[in-house]
Design a protein that fits this description.
Helix content is 32%, strand content 15%. It contains 16 helices and 17 strands. The strands form 3 sheets. It has an 11-stranded mixed beta sheet, with helices on both faces. Helix 11 packs across helix 12 (356-362).
């Protein structure tokens, strides 16, 4: 419920009472006090949704938050999860970095009170499961809240803290699993939303989860797990799924990686491992590469391989809005930077060996001028686009609800510093457009065309969160992608619908992945 502060009116001989600095909400754990933004949106930042995963709770399933008395300030972002500074495009407003990182942030539309039953958006950040934070300006929920959406961002454990599997951890777990702590954090946040969001004016039965890159992979994982049943009414995936990108591995394999790591640091027990300071643990965990620790097929969060779950129709049956960008990867990763047919063909033969001729037929560059476009397409599919296609395709066949597919093609403009625009829409380029946060990114010289594209894409997102369909007044019609003829919404300066292109590529990749 809202606690609306009374205005303090001094009278003769009296002392004025202190008025709360911001709006207050009573959650199931205690009262919090947020901030009234200039837009009229109420923001509540740094709300704990699980106990700090420190000490004996390191590598444990998220535990319940301890209740508090009095009023807890929720006027600044909590600490971000432990992570190395590996992505130059990440800007943090967090309160430092800590293992104690399980916090979320809520933005509430102006004038909203408990019981309003507004639609809810829960956004999971990207960063390869090794970086990212809910405080990043590109995910900020204030603009979405001005559109009538109660909006949340969620922190979750990363890297070795979020995805470390180890035989003794599996034995210790009441669920006989280990290695999916970051994903279980996200599920715990969705449970928090179910239990608390009505007090903020949100409808627990109208919750849409969304994310980009690792956040999109997270959404696909939350759709695959039985633990989210009843928690989510819709899903948005922007570039990535666990059906190919950052795939889970069998628990036994992940446990072996954990044993190897323990030996490398001279740890012979969980006591030894939990005694390692967080900074040292993070540094040691990075020595063999940032992506050493994977999601696991643990029999609990993921009862079996995700492809089997989706093929059997055992995933969540909710509407899905999903797609990827026109330049998720660069031809330079295949050709070593040379835009020539000879360099391209040599790169493909090196990557694909015995099936290189087939791949060169599917991704054919007839001239040097074709190499950037065709090479970018292949690099994009190799990186993340194919996994997103596979998710959309399987959900359309077995999910029982509408699937809306997009292809985002608006490149970011030149930078303020004068660096030219890219050929296509690069990985993560759509986030600020979809969330209405172009002004928060000071790197690029945004144009009126960019703001027009943002109005369209954000409009689609707002409609989908509100109704389960992206369609609405003033927007180009977006047909469902289910069925024999798959229609794709191309979002850019000229947003339009086109039949799915190059399906033969994806069907071949899908067959090869079996």
């Amino acid at each position: 419920m809202w606690l609306l502060p009374a205005i303090a009116i001094p009278t003769a001989g009296s002392v004025a009472q202190t008025t709360p600095a911001g709006p207050q909400v009573v959650t199931i754990h205690g009262t919090i006090e947020g901030t009234l933004e200039s837009s009229g949106v109420r923001s509540f930042k740094g709300i704990p949704y699980a106990a700090p995963p420190v000490g004996q709770l390191r590598w444990r399933e998220p535990q319940a938050v301890a209740n508090w008395t009095g009023v807890r300030k929720a006027d600044h972002f909590g600490p971000r999860a432990m992570q190395p500074p590996i992505y130059s495009d990440m800007v943090f407003r967090s309160d430092g970095m800590s293992e104690d990182c399980l916090y979320l942030n809520v933005w509430v539309p102006r004038g909203t009170h408990a019981g309003a039953k507004l639609p809810v958006l829960v956004y999971f950040y990207g960063g390869g499961f090794v970086a990212g934070d809910g405080s990043e300006p590109r995910y900020d929920g204030e603009n979405m809240a001005t559109k009538g959406i109660v909006t949340l961002t969620v922190n979750y454990r990363l890297g070795i803290f979020g995805f470390f599997a180890y035989p003794d951890l599996t034995k210790e777990s009441p669920n006989h699993s280990s290695g999916n702590y970051g994903l279980e954090d996200q599920t715990a946040a969705l449970r928090w939303v179910r239990d608390n969001i009505a007090a903020f004016g949100g409808d627990p039965n109208r919750v849409t989860m969304a994310g980009e890159s690792a956040g999109s992979v997270s959404v696909s994982a939350q759709m695959a797990t039985p633990l989210t049943k009843g928690l989510v009414a819709g899903a948005i995936g922007e570039s990535g799924s666990l059906l190919g990108a950052l795939p889970p591995v069998p628990l036994s394999k992940a446990e072996q990686v954990g044993l190897e790591f323990a030996r490398s640091v001279g740890a012979s027990s969980l006591v030894d491992l939990r005694a390692i300071p967080a900074e040292k643990l993070m540094a040691e965990g990075m020595k063999a590469g940032a992506f050493r620790f994977s999601m696991t097929i643990d029999g609990y969060f993921l009862p079996k391989p995700p492809s089997e779950i989706f093929k059997a129709g055992e995933q969540l049956h909710v509407p899905l809005l999903v797609g990827w960008n026109s330049e998720e990867g660069s031809y330079g990763s295949i050709t070593d930077g040379k835009a020539t047919v000879a360099s391209y063909e040599a790169g493909v033969r090196k990557l694909y060996g015995p099936i290189a001729d087939t791949m060169l037929g599917l991704y054919h560059a007839a001239s040097d001028a074709d190499v950037p476009v065709v090479g970018n397409a292949l690099a994009s599919d190799r990186f993340i686009a194919f996994s997103t296609w596979r998710w959309a395709d399987l959900q359309g066949k077995t999910g029982g609800k509408p699937v809306y597919r997009y292809f985002y093609e608006r490149p970011r403009p030149a930078t303020v510093a004068g660096e030219p625009a890219s050929l296509g829409a690069s990985h993560s380029a759509e986030i600020e457009y979809a969330m209405g946060n172009l002004p928060g990114n000071k790197v690029y010289a945004w144009t009126k065309e960019d703001f027009a594209v943002s109005r369209v894409m954000q409009g689609y997102f707002v409609n989908f969160v509100t109704t389960g369909s992206p369609n609405g007044v003033g927007l180009p019609h977006w047909p469902v992608a289910n069925g024999k003829v798959v229609e794709v919404q191309h979002i850019g300066v000229k947003t339009r619908t086109e039949p799915e292109g190059h399906r033969e590529r994806y069907e071949y990749l899908d067959k090869s992945a079996q």
